[in-house]
Design goal:
mainly alpha, 2 strands, 9% strand
Length: 65
Amino acid sequence: MIKNNVRKFRQEHKYSQKQLAEMVHVSRQTIISVESGRYQPTLELSFKLARAFEKTVEEVFIYYE
């Protein structure tokens, strides 16, 4: 199982869902789905999100066995 901190970091950076979506070149709906855990992003999108927050991928996405 993979959990994520996308919503937490987005709010800390004061980005709207739309702003973050534009930064990483996806739709707002994709950001909503990632935040809710309904969608597991591609590796490329995971890196883009991490860079948007100036974090590592491991800080944004947490893997649980």
